[in-house]
Prior knowledge:
By secondary structure, the protein is an alpha/beta fold. It contains six helices and seven strands. The protein has a single domain (about 60-200), classed as DNA polymerase, domain 1. It has a three-stranded mixed beta sheet, covered by helices on one side. Strands 4-5 form a two-stranded antiparallel sheet. Strands 6-7 form a two-stranded parallel ribbon. A hairpin with a 6-residue loop joins β4 and β5 (about 125).
Amino acid sequence: MGDMELSALSPSRRRALAVALLLAVAAFLVARHLGGGAPARPAAEPLRPARRAAPAAVPRVVVDVVGAVRRPGLYRLRQGTRIADAVTLAGGATAKADLALVNLAAPLADGEQIVVPARSPGSGAVAAPPPAAGASASAPLDLNTATAEQLDALPGIGPATAAKIVAFRQAHGAFRSVDELDAVPGIGPARIAQLKGLVIP
């Protein structure tokens, strides 16, 4: 529209046209400010999988399984397992084993010897292993390695008490002194005094 056309407009029309032009410019500036002025958001970082903590090492115990089992020897088991687990690991008990004299539910202790006794044919008595080379028949009996039959041969110790000594040893670990026999049911101070010199811890 030229100057002649603008001058021909009435003052009110010119005022309205100026207001409309100012509003258009203002709207353009506001739109530009709102649309392009905001900073771009950084891209979200991908989630990284959490690292799993390394499992704690399970404590182990070493036990010696001997007697009427298929594979006697040293075995390493987890702490807290039972004598039954050690016997199973040793191939299980043989047909001649007398498991009634073994507390299979007792927990294992490190360094323990587990003796699975065997019955003599037809007698029900526990068979003693052959004596070690150089061993003397009069030598004191070791409470921690003796079988139930060997313990039964001691004065005042019958089959039932011998079985209790073996069960106590397997449940509580090795004897440290002869006086600890007092904790075995059926053995009192008089019997301990009688056994001193005949047995050693």
